Amino acid sequence: MMGVSTRRGLFVKGGTLHLTVAKLFPFLPQQILMPDLDPFFFTINSWSFTRHRTWTRCPRQYYYEYIAQYVTTSPVVPPEKIRWLKNFTSKYVVQGQLIHDIIDQQIQLACDSKPMNYFEAESVFAKKVANYRAIGGETFTEHHNGEKIPDSFFTYILENGKTCLSTFFAKWPEYAKRECLRHEQFDHFTIGDAGVTVKVDFAAKMPDGTIVLSDWKTGKDDDEYESELQMAAYVLWAKEFYNRSADEIGTELVFLKTGTTKPYAFFEDELREVREQIAGEFAAMNASYEFGDFPARPVARECLSCKFAEVCPEVALKK
Question: pTM of the entire structure?
Answer without folding.
Answer: 0.87
